[in-house]
Design brief:
Blueprint lengths: L1 H24 L6 H8 L3 H7 L3 H10 L13 H18 L1 H10 L10 H20 L9 H23 L4 H12 L6 H6 L6 H29 L1
Helix pairs in contact: 1-2, 1-4, 1-6, 4-6, 5-6, 5-7, 5-9, 5-11, 7-8, 8-9
Length: 230
């Protein structure tokens, strides 16, 4: 178990180091020696997890969709909103996610296959939209796959605009406004009225999740203490 934990930590260190180097120098100019030095690991450790710089870049790109499941909501469209707002929040605060999106958006070139991160994001949105359709949340003419592609494309463009204009400092606000203008074209009015698309939505969801996790840890501590007394 300890060996497995170390391997997970090493992989995470390599990904974080690669994200920082890709972010600073670009994929084409980044070298494995720079990444090794930043991560503080051996060449053998790197190649144990990633066979090449390209494979490492794909590992970084996959990170943008690798996050803890968000709490279920009354409507699937609220869950879709939360996915978008959380991605905006992570883009501002997590270097690994910034580098992941930077690679996927080809900011640094390099001939990487960028289909997977886009396709994964579209599929995630489409799944929520199909479920929303089944629950009667969407307007009759909405095609979930088309709507998912439109939302993914719009998000990509808005985040790029925010990056260019102000290094994404206003990204949550811009995504909130994007949803304000786009959601009326797919959501039934009663459902639309229920949605929380405020720009601090992600932070409030995170705070709620952290509080729930803390309460669970406290409960587990109490159960362990009761067992020790028996």
């Amino acid at each position: 178990m300890a060996r497995q934990t170390r391997a997970i930590q090493t992989r995470e260190s390599i990904l974080l180091a690669a994200a920082a180097v890709f972010d600073e120098r670009g994929y084409g100019s980044a070298t494995l020696s720079e990444i090794l030095a930043r991560a503080g690991v051996t060449k053998g450790a790197l190649y144990f997890h990633f066979a090449s710089k390209e494979e490492l870049a794909h590992g970084v790109m996959e990170a943008q969709l690798d996050f803890e499941p968000l709490p279920p909501q009354v409507t699937k469209l609220q869950e879709l909103v939360d996915q978008g707002m959380m991605m905006a929040h992570r883009l501002r605060h997590e270097p690994l996610v910034r580098a992941s999106v930077g690679l996927a958006m080809a900011q640094w070139g390099g001939g990487l296959d960028r289909v997977l991160p886009f396709r994964s994001w579209i599929d995630r949105l489409a799944t929520l939209l199909v479920e929303a359709q089944k629950q009667g949340e969407l307007l009759p003419y909405v095609d979930p796959e088309e709507a998912a592609q439109m939302l993914a494309g719009a998000f990509s463009g808005i985040q790029e605009l925010s990056q260019v204009l102000c290094e994404r400092k206003d990204l949550e606000h811009r995504i909130s406004r994007l949803l304000h203008y786009v959601l009326p074209s797919i959501a039934l009015p009663p459902v639309l009225a229920m949605l929380d698309i405020s720009e601090d939505r992600a932070q409030r969801v995170l705070t709620s999740m952290q509080a729930a996790a803390a309460a669970e840890r406290q409960e587990n501590k109490g159960e362990e203490a009761d067992k020790d007394q028996c």
